[in-house]
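2024-03-11 09:14:02 DEBUG pipeline.ingest accepted 1 chain
2024-03-11 09:14:02 DEBUG pipeline.ingest length=556
2024-03-11 09:14:03 DEBUG pipeline.predict start
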Amino acid sequence: MVQSSPIDDRTGAPAGADPEPPSGKRALVVYLPLFATERLVRIMPEIARQPFASITEDRGRLVLVAVNPQARRLSLRPGMVLADARALAPDLQTRFANPVAEQEALEKLAHWCMRYTPIVMPGQGEGAEGQSLFLDISGCAHLFGGEERMAQHLCTRLVSFGLTPHVAIADTPGAAWARALVSDADAPIILPPFKGDGAWEHLADCPVASLRLDGSTTEALISFGLRTIGALRPLSRRDLADRFGAGLLLRLGQLLGVQEEAINPLRVITPFVARQGFFDPIATPEDIAATTRQLLDALCHLLEQAGQGAVRLVLSCHRVDGTTQRLAVGMARPSRWPEPLFVLLAEKLGEIRPDFGIEIMELAAPDSAVVEGDQTNWQDPVGKRSAQGEAFAAFVNRLGNRYGFASLARQAPAQSWLPERAVRRLPPFDDKPLGTNGVATNGVGANAMGKDPRWPGGRPRPLRLLMRPEAVDAIAPVPDDPPVQFRWQGRTYRVRAADGPERLSDEWWGDDPDNGSGIRDYYTVEDEDGRRYWLYRDGLYKPGTAPQWFLHGLFG
């Protein structure tokens, strides 16, 4: 967005603004002029040496969208009608353009570039035929031996993928893109840090098309004889704004670094990440395990400094062939102890296939949470309880990563008189009490006395409680007596002894039709073989109606 404050005619910046770009900011831009056709060549290698173009329908005509170098040498250009193109190149091969697939391929390439920096943004400059990638490499180049080696390594790898990259590095994304647009694919262009008007010297020969303006503004500039960026320098910024619009001043300000331009990352950046690159790719299990442990120690140190613990870890192995293998482990509760975390990772390291080698390994904690400091009291000076708790947590983590954390739970009481509602499944380390609706109460209003719910004492309860009470056919001498016989799942059981009733009712505010009348009389009965059952009669006795009986549990 263009600021509305007065404009400095000399720099194009708002009056009073600092004309120097932010200190230490560096951007790398990869311009791929032939990305559309080179993507299709990777899918169909047989067309690599033939004139080729992607086409689309435009107002009832088929026109060229992108052409490969062989077609360009035959004077074919994007925007040309297909019929005219075939007159110049009868053997022209064509395929319909697929913008969705092209964007997906570009985003996949952007994910691959995250081995150099986590801040990567795919984009397309206005007025350019190809695609672009914007990388914020501030503070990252030293990991690859400097900007020159980093850029050269990136170029070499992209060429090996069958792409034609134009790479440039500068203080601002706009300056880097301008130089990449006019550079050769042979070697990257690296602009030194510029201050004040220093950018003009490095960008004066770039065409105005490299300002990423819309086509009409670019054509208007050229019609006035303003073909290069350097031609704009002596002109009044106010006159440029009046003649060509505020968008021109915005792009000039971003180019010179007097207006901030952000590179929006393709994915959310995690603050907790450790990375290790290799001049010689590694491939042995021993090297992978040793590097993983080093990364884990560094990551846990970062977590400790921030008072955080990892809830999930993701290990990314970037291979020489351009693919990335990832494995993830989760934790039942936040942790930053390297030993148990390494055990979880070590169990899955065998899934990594290095093939021709791994050139970068990265360990990140995308999910983290605050960890309370482990404090031992004077009776426990060596932290025995803390160690036991961590050992149990490590055991739970191993089970969770093997069978899924959703399958791990503990039973906890909930505030309800109905047996099926009086118990809830909680995560292993969740100690918050639950109300009748199953929502954590944080210990407030857990029951009428303001205390946490507890398991009922002094009342016999079956060892196995059925998920849903099952209807049975029961015979009782009088309505309020226990049954003397009942039939369940096709079998008849004769009752030898019984105890009850125990009357339980639904909460007064409850209105669930699945719970019957809400009033139940429970009996503990024993059959002739000594097996005990938990039966209940639903509702109060009503003359003229047969009572309904249900089996709700089995005793051991």
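2024-03-11 09:14:41 DEBUG pipeline.report The mean pLDDT is 82.
2024-03-11 09:14:41 DEBUG pipeline.predict end
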